[in-house]
Amino acid sequence: MADDKKKFITVPVMLRNVRLVQTFNLFEPDSGSKYSDDKYHLNLLVSKDDKENIDAINTALKQVTAEAIKAGELPQEQTIEFVRKAITDGSTDEFPSPLHDGDKDKNADKYTYLKGNWLVRASSKNPVRFYDRHAEQIEDVPAAKREFYPGAVVNAKITLMAFGASRVASNGGVTVWASGIQKAADGERLGGASDGFTDLGSDNADGFAPAGATADPYAAMGM
Fold it and tell me: Exposure check for the chain: N or C terminus, fewer CB within 10 A?
C-alpha cells in the first residue's frame, strides 16, 4: 500500500519456521552510543533450501519495487536490474534489499551457522510483538526472553518498504520493518544468549495466517 503523505510504499510478508539469530536488541532498542539508531532489531536465518520463504520475500521485493516504480520513487529499468541481481546474489551496498548472503558475511568463519543461509535484518522504532505457539501475545519481557533466543524457530511478520535515492543509498533500495514473531518450536542455541550481531494488522491468531501467492508484478510492465 502507499501513503501519499509520507511516500511509504510497503508490502507485508509472513515468514514461517525461520530461526532467530540475534536477540541483543530484540527486547530493548539499540541506544547509548554514537552509532546507535534507537531501534529494535530482529535478525532471522532463512535456509537457502527454503523455497517457500525465499519465494515469499522475492515476490514481495518485486511487488514493492513495482509499486515504487509506478509512484515515481524508483527508476524502472535500473531498479528491475538491481532486483534481479538481489534475487540471485542478495543485498548490496549499491541496492540494499532484504536478503543478505550468509556465506559472504564477514562473520561467516566465526559464526559458521550463517553458511548456507540468507540473513534477514529487520528493525522497528516500536517494540516487536511476541506470541506463543497458540498465537497468544506474550507481554511479559522476561517470559518472552525465555521463549525467543538465538536458534529458536519462529514465524515472523515483516514488512518490506521501498525508498528512493538518498544519502544512505544513492540508487534507493528496500528496507525491512519488524512487527511480530511467534514461537514455532525450540531449536539448537546459536552462540549463546547473544551472538554479538548488531504494524501488519490484528494481534489475534488470524494475523499469522499465511498470505496467498501473487502474480509477478513485473509482468504488467512487459518485463
Answer: N
